[in-house]
Design goal:
about 90 residues, alpha+beta, four-stranded mixed sheet, 1 helix, 4 strands, globular
């Protein structure tokens, strides 16, 4: 399952790495017919910090983002520990 999050607030740029990713506070979007978003255990989902590589940053293209996303899913399927991938909506 692909998790989609909405960007809330820019935190900072990471200085390491050639793509200069950003740290952004994100949260899951709440469907229009709900007041809050809850998990299957009735726990409210809190905002979280995500490392984001976005179009417009150095050396970032759609193809790069797709390859990184699929590579992450493949690594997880093979049993390697990786942070969960997500699609981030930045308005």
């Amino acid at each position: 399952m692909i998790i989609t999050l909405e960007a809330l607030r820019f935190e900072r740029f990471l200085r390491s790495g050639r793509t200069c990713p950003m740290v952004i506070e994100c949260e899951q979007s709440v469907p229009e017919d709900q007041d809050t978003l809850e998990t299957s255990n009735n726990e409210t989902v809190l905002p979280q910090l995500m490392v984001v590589k976005a179009l417009g940053l150095p050396e970032i293209e759609e193809r790069n983002l797709f390859c990184e996303f699929v590579g992450n899913l493949l690594a997880r399927e093979l049993g390697l520990f990786t942070p969960p991938p997500a699609l981030i909506t930045i308005s």
